[in-house]
Design brief:
two-stranded antiparallel ribbon, alpha+beta, globular, 2 strands, single chain
């Protein structure tokens, strides 16, 4: 999420994205997009089941090579085999 959002809202958006993709049983790289109004109320827009051009920002703040990870998952690897657990992915910076 945008750097200017309050930490609590960032956490809420992460939680929404994880719940949505988990409910859909989606297991690969993708982007969940929201808009936030002036009162910090989030509104869901869409899910893009592909790597976005901005993926390098995600790679920098998570330390995860998104392209390599997507290729490995498409090849049949599980998150566990790759060493990824959602609860361990913490954005930094």
């Amino acid at each position: 999420p945008a750097w200017s959002l309050p930490d609590e809202l960032r956490a809420e958006l992460h939680e929404y994205a994880v719940k949505l993709t988990s409910a859909a049983k989606y297991k690969n790289a993708g982007t969940v997009e929201f808009l936030v109004d002036n009162e910090n109320r989030p509104y869901f827009i869409e899910v893009n089941p592909r790597i976005q051009v901005e993926h390098t920002v995600t790679e920098e703040v998570t330390g995860i090579d998104v392209v390599q990870t997507q290729i490995r998952i498409a090849g049949g690897a599980t998150f566990e085999e790759i060493g990824l657990k959602q609860e361990d992915i913490k954005p930094r910076g």
